[in-house]
Amino acid sequence: MRYIQYLCMLWGRRLRRSGPVLGTLAAMNEQTVFPEDLPDRARVVHAEQAGGAEVLVEAQVSLPEPGPNQVLVETAATGVNFIETYQRSGVYPVQYPFTPGTEGTGRVLAAGEGVESLSVGQRVTTLEASTGTYASHFLVDAGKAVRVPDEVTDEQAAALPLQGITAHYLVNSTYRVSPGETVLTHAGAGGVGQILTQLLKAKGARVITTCSTEEKAQIAQAAGADYVLGYENFAERVLEITKGEGVAAVFDGVGKDTYAGSLESLAIRGMFVLYGGASGQVPPLDPQELNRRGGLYVTRPATHWYLRNAEERSWRYAELFRALTTGDLKLSIGASYPLAEAGRAHEDLENRRTTGKLLLQP
């Protein structure tokens, strides 16, 4: 079958020279062709049931085939994110067997019918893959993948999407930070935390952040934080730094262990932005508590609400790639693991043994 498709590709190239109508048909043929040397199987790491990191095992599966408006990508690097530990453990319900991952970078191997924005051989990255990216190959809708600039490495492209887009929407859309404002972030040495600090400083904000160790504090300072605090009694220190006023906004990805102090740290009409729960989920919150503390605002954003259309997606990626290529944004890649050792990456992430972004490489 693939040999016949390969002949169709050659035939299509000849048709392209024959005129605009036949050329269009040829282009459609090329879009649906599989390269002659395309493998029959793909490697994945999946979980057959909910559980600890040990349930992640390597397996061989059929190579996914792109449907209409999809591309097949050969993975160069995959980003590891905390949400995948929730899915693996059963905190977030998923169907098993489950292959984690929506973030990945690689080269387009084949394209489905109707794909016009991407071509075979181009490098792309995404945080919205259609199939799990803990794999040697994955599928993604062409409209949800973006081309990677030549100046950006595969590792950078894999490390950027989720953490970069998250930081971008937090400071540009969820709470639009103004020059001179003081804000609090948590986990300032983490992947999101370091990018968040850099974007905040670029906007002229004063940044207070928290870390769990002296080593992580040095990383947060290197990212540009003005004040780095430990987690113990951090709210008291924030109020001291702000002379009792509190901060305009708190960006909190830690959750259960920090939310009470985050609320205490806010100024009147300040905003509590809860974008994650690395320490666990926040318990129900009484709205009257927000009134008592000064008419506070609370929001729980998620990435998909900030990638609503092609224009928004293009704007966010373009700004991040520009900052990366000019050197205004620096990414921290904490560790890279072989695909088969995804379980070890989960253990390190859950036990807070990491800083920066974790990657898997097939």
UniProtKB/TrEMBL annotation:
Say if the entry is tagged with keyword Transport.
Answer: no
Q: Which UniProt keywords apply?
A: NADP, Oxidoreductase
User: Care to name a GO molecular-function term for this sequence?
Assistant: quinone reductase (NADPH) activity
Q: Which residues form the Enoyl reductase (ER) domain?
A: 51-360
Matches recorded under PROSITE patterns: QOR_ZETA_CRYSTAL (PS01162)
Q: Does the keyword NADP apply?
A: yes
User: InterPro entries given for it?
Assistant: ADH-like_C (IPR013149), ADH-like_N (IPR013154), ER (IPR020843), GroES-like_sf (IPR011032), NAD(P)-bd_dom_sf (IPR036291), QOR-like (IPR047618), Quin_OxRdtase/zeta-crystal_CS (IPR002364)
Q: Which SUPFAM superfamilies match?
A: GroES-like (SSF50129), NAD(P)-binding Rossmann-fold domains (SSF51735)
Please give an example of a GO cellular component term from this record. Answer: cytosol
Q: What is this protein called?
A: NADPH2:quinone reductase
Q: Which organism is it from?
A: Nesterenkonia aurantiaca
